[in-house]
Amino acid sequence: METVEQRVSGLGLIMPPAAAPVANYVGAVRTGGLLAVSGQLCFGPDGALVAKGKLGAGVSVEQGQEAARACAINLLAQVKAATGSLDRVRRVVRLGGFINADPGFLDTPKVMNGASDLMVAVFGEHGRHARTTIGVAALPMNAAVEVEGLFEVD
Amino acid sequence: METVEQRVSGLGLIMPPAAAPVANYVGAVRTGGLLAVSGQLCFGPDGALVAKGKLGAGVSVEQGQEAARACAINLLAQVKAATGSLDRVRRVVRLGGFINADPGFLDTPKVMNGASDLMVAVFGEHGRHARTTIGVAALPMNAAVEVEGLFEVD
Amino acid sequence: METVEQRVSGLGLIMPPAAAPVANYVGAVRTGGLLAVSGQLCFGPDGALVAKGKLGAGVSVEQGQEAARACAINLLAQVKAATGSLDRVRRVVRLGGFINADPGFLDTPKVMNGASDLMVAVFGEHGRHARTTIGVAALPMNAAVEVEGLFEVD
Which of A61, A125, A150, B32 has the smallest set of CB atoms within 10 Å of its CB? Predict the structure, then answer.
C-alpha cells in the first residue's frame, strides 16, 4: 500500500524546506491532535513567488491556480517539518484561501481549487477539507495567493 | 422541553439542502468534538443570492443583514447534514464574517449581527460565539456576505 | 520563578477591561482545551482607537505596529476574563491579523509583528504562534488593525 510520502514522490512534487520564521511566530503549532499552520505565500521551489499581483488585474486564473498549488505544497512542507512525515496526517480539516484580488474579481474559488486539488492528489479522501475563500486587498510582497491550513495529525 | 430542531421549525426557518461540494472540498469536516464548516455564501431558499454586490456601494445594511442571516441558515444546513440533527450542537464556538465591502464602509459588525442573532435565536445561550468580522475586497459570485463557522458537537 | 501575570506587571502593560459584547456574540469561547477569542480592535487603555485609517494611505508602519500591539493586549484581556489568569495559557496557538490596507500596501507582516512580539514578551517560547496576516478592505470603526486569537489553556 502506497504511503503518502511515496505518493508525493510519485507526483514529482518538489517540497521546499519549510519557510523559516522571520519574526516572533512559527510555521506551525500543534495543540492536541490539531496542527495549525501559518499562512503560506506562493513561493515556488526556486524561492521566487509563483505569481505576483492581483487576480483580475494582471494575474490570470491559471496563474492564480499555480500559485494556490504552490501555497499548498508549502503547507505540506510545514506539516512535514512539524510532524516528521506526511503519513502522520489523518485529515486536512480546513484551508483558508486568501486571493489578492481586484474588487471586481469573482473567480476566487476557481483559483483556490489549485490548493484543494493538490490536497486530494496527496491525501486522497483524507485530503477533502472545509474551505473558506476570500478576495483580499493586500498580501505580503504582493503575492497573488496565501493559504493557511488546519490538519488533524497522529 | 423544546429541542433545537423544534425551535427551528417554530422560527419558520426554511433549511435548504446543504450546498453540495463543487470541487475537492466538502461542506464540513469533523475532528474530535469540533466541526469546521466551510464558508457559506448568502444563498436563499430559492437558490439565488439574497444580496449581491458591495456594502457601502449599492447594498444596504438591512440587505446585508438578511444576507448574513442566510449564510447562518446555510451553516446550519451543513451542520445538520454532517451530524444528523442540530440537537447535536453543544456550542457555536466561532463565526468568521466576510463582508463584501467598499473600502469606506464601516458598519460590518452591524451586518454580521444578522448571522449572530440567528445563532442565538436557534441555540439560545449556546449560540453565543466568538466572532471576527472583516470587510473583504471580493467574494465568489459577487455575494454580499460569506460566513464560516466552528461548532462543538456531540 | 516569574509568573506570566508578574511579567505582565513588569512590562507595565495596562490591561483594559475585556471589551463587553455589544451584540449576540462574546469575547471568547472555550471548547475543550482551546479558547477562541473574538477579533479585537486596536483600542488603547483610554478607550480610543490607537490608529484609525488605512496602512499605505495615512497610517504609518510604526502606528500600525502600535495598533497591532494594542489588539494583542486586548486579546490578553479577553483571555484573562475567560480563564481568570494569564498563567492558565499553555500556548498561543494562532493569531489572525487583519490590516486595514490600501491595495498597494505590502508591509502587512511588519505591522503584525507588533502583536507577535507582545505575545513572546508575555509568554516567552509559549507565545510563539502560527500566524496569518492579510490586508483587508474595511474594518469596524475604520480601525487600522484587528487581531483574533486561538489559545491552548489549562
Answer: A125
Residues contacting residue B99 through CB under 8 Å, at least 6 positions apart:
B55, B64, B105, B108, B111, B112, B133, B134, B135, B136, B144, B145, C138
Of the options 3.90.76.10, 3.30.1330.40, 3.40.50.300, 3.30.1050.10, the CATH number for the domain spanning A40-153: 3.30.1330.40
- Over residues A90-105, the mean pLDDT reads 97
pTM (predicted TM-score): 0.96
CATH architecture of B26-153: 2-Layer Sandwich (3.30)
| DSSP 3-state of C68 | helix
What are the residue ranges spanned by the domains of chain A?
Answer: 40-153
Touching check for A138 and chain C: CB below 8 Å?
yes
Is any Cβ of chain C less than 8 angstroms from the Cβ of B106?
yes
Beta carbons of C113 and A24 less than 8 Å apart: yes
Calpha distance B103→B96 (Å, rounded): 19
Q: What is the pLDDT of residue B95?
A: 98
Judged on CB neighbours under 10 Å (0-12, 13-18, 19+), A120 is middle
Superfamily of domain C25-153: RutC-like (3.30.1330.40)
What's residue C127's pLDDT?
97
Asked if C129 lies within 8 A of A26 by C-beta distance, the reply is: yes
How far is C50 from C70, CA to CA, in rounded Å?
A: 7
Write down which chains contact chain C via at least 3 CB pairs under 8 A.
A, B
Residue C131 cell numbers, joined: 500566524
User: How, if at all, do strands A130-136 and A89-100 pair?
Assistant: parallel
Q: Which amino acid is at B115?
A: A
- pLDDT for C91-133, tens place per residue? 999 999 999 999 999 999 999 999 999 999 999 999 999 999 9
pLDDT, tens digit (0-9, with 9 covering 90-100), for C58-96: 999 999 999 999 999 999 999 999 999 999 999 999 999
Q: Residue written as cell 503575492?
A: A143
Chain A CB within 8 Å of residue B19 CB: no
